[in-house]
Sequence to fold (336 residues):
Amino acid sequence: MSFFIEANYEGTKQNRTSFKGYHTIKDIGENIYRIAPPCRSLIALANPDYAIYNSVHFGYSVPDPLNPDRMFKKPFYCIHKVNYKTKKVEVQCPECAKIAEVKAEMDKLKAELTKEGHPEAYIKQALSPQFAWLGEHNLDRKWYGYAKNLAGEWNIFKLGHKAKLALDDRMKRTFKEDQIKGLDPASGVWFKFTKNGLKGPNALTNVEVLKEKIDMNGQKVEVVKTAPLTEADVKAIEGLGDVANVCARLTFDQINALVNSGGNPEVAKQVFALGTKVTTTSEPAATTVTTTPVPTTTGSVTVTTPAPKAPVAPKPTSQEIADMDADKFLRMFAKS
Ligand SMILES: [Zn+2]
Fold:
């Protein structure tokens, strides 16, 4: 890129790039990724890991300020909180409550229509508004980390809970059996994800370490393909969005206002102007700088500088490493 580029004479439109979506595990084709070790805000979490679990609500949109005919989906964090020890709900989420209400309404109507002896197609048609509403109001719960594909493109990597468990298990086994640290910046590997093609509770993801054939003394030998990270990789990861801050953070009252609006875009516009993306945790060590709002967004933008490095712990012995659980093992090479 040259030092000067053409000024933007046509307003903010030119600056927009369409969102191509995150890296995900697709149903078909190759899913090969080099996953980044815990970094950026993932290090500051109570349990540092290479990914964070985000519960994201969909279902509300705001008009595009440049083209009011177009709507922008505005996802937001679910605030539902359960105390796992007491099983008590500590924070109610109005959107979750609304979803439960629509589901109950649908079940009741279905039971009534079935009792009245209506044919299945008729019942399906009668329930279609609720069905469509539930489809739009999806609660997306996924793990978010950073990964690079074989083309060298870094992006946020979104994976389901079962796929995360399968990856954790593969990493643990690869370490125990072959002493390979799957995410190590200097010697990490590529993981290959394959779905079993089934849906719902039967869906499974298989995770393998990618191997390649090399020529050794005239013989083809299969070896693990390593994926050391470079400064360019670090730069690319730094340029991505924060996985601990993927959508708006709204309060109970703000979510309640959205739910009660029945999807009114004007209400959504006001609510999302109030809700800010705030980087989680990393306190007390991190410093937070709030910049003035940028012209293209409504809320203020918060930039958090990484927390200073924690004191370095003594190196564990190889036996200690072998006995470690995956979480502890991954924390060892958390890089700030
Ligand atoms: Zn919720």
